[in-house]
Amino acid sequence: MKDLIRIKSLISTEVESLLNQQVKKEAYSSSVYLAMASWCNRNGYDFSSEYFFKQAEEERQHQLKFYKYILDMGGNAISPDVTGIKQEYNSFREVFEEALDQEISVTQSIKNIYARCLKEQDFVTNEFLNWFLKEQREEEYKARRALELFEVIGEEGTGRWQIDKHVGGIKYDSEA
Amino acid sequence: MVNTTQTQELSTWTNVFGTKQGAIYQCDEERCWYVDFAGKVAKFDYRCLLKLKKAVYHVDIEDRLLNSGKSPDVEIIFICACDHTYVLNLLQIIALKEILEGTFVMFQLNHIIQDTLYRLPL
């Protein structure tokens, strides 16, 4: 009997399902960042708004990377429903706290897929995921650095204006 | 759709997994599967077989068993872009699920065997 399932697809149905969940997660992240960009813009934090627009675009690119990988490997990529995006925030700081939470949740989710692939010895998908693991270093660093600005600058007086200005300049250029 | 399995067809089909209620056969030549269940033999390609599995697994059997409502004990298994539809009662759903579970375990086993016997020694 031919191994027809393997002939049709490189990835198992379990990994395919996890990757589709990740597509949804990235799409959700992109929408959350877009809502954050809107909130920041409406409240006068233009640099932060621009920062979140860029983040939204990056998450969208991540979503497409996963989406195309599933298709390239013979799987069925599912265009996700994205609902329940929070539109209002109580404070400038809360926006960045939730951005970091979002990134931590994405990292955890990718680690989960990685663990499943190791169990199945799906090293091809593991190799594909390596790029995302490295990307998460940058994403978490930037989100953590933004929160750090609240500590070192402080929110009093023109603090929030200063924080906003510096958020625009956050970069991660580690070669490690 | 085929209504009965002919001896000639059975000789080219491999019985992947079967129970008293039905069976799933693989046809290597056509690269498809034949599901012999509920009085008919239906042909499924790769995508449709996965959709059938998803649709059957999606039925919440426990919820159906505990539900004392008056709604009929019938589930319509409709698969998009596939020629076949099943109208099954709960016992048939359980039986079909058992066949599909067994089939996919056999696929995994076959994958391991193919890897070990043919792919890795080369």
TrEMBL record, chain A:
Species lineage: Bacteria, Pseudomonadati, Bacteroidota, Sphingobacteriia, Sphingobacteriales
Annotated function: Iron-storage protein.
Origin: domain of life: Bacteria
Domain Ferritin-like diiron, residue spans: 9-154
UniProt keyword annotations, A-Z: Cytoplasm, Iron, Iron storage, Metal-binding, Oxidoreductase
Catalytic activity, as annotated: 4 Fe(2+) + O2 + 6 H2O = 4 iron(III) oxide-hydroxide + 12 H(+)
Root EC class: oxidoreductase
Species of provenance: Mucilaginibacter pankratovii
Protein name: Ferritin
Metal-binding as UniProt keyword: yes
Cellular localization per UniProt: Cytoplasm
Database matches in Gene3D superfamilies: 1.20.1260.10
Main location: cytoplasm
From TrEMBL, chain B:
Protein name from the UniProt record: Uncharacterized protein
Species annotation: Mucilaginibacter pankratovii
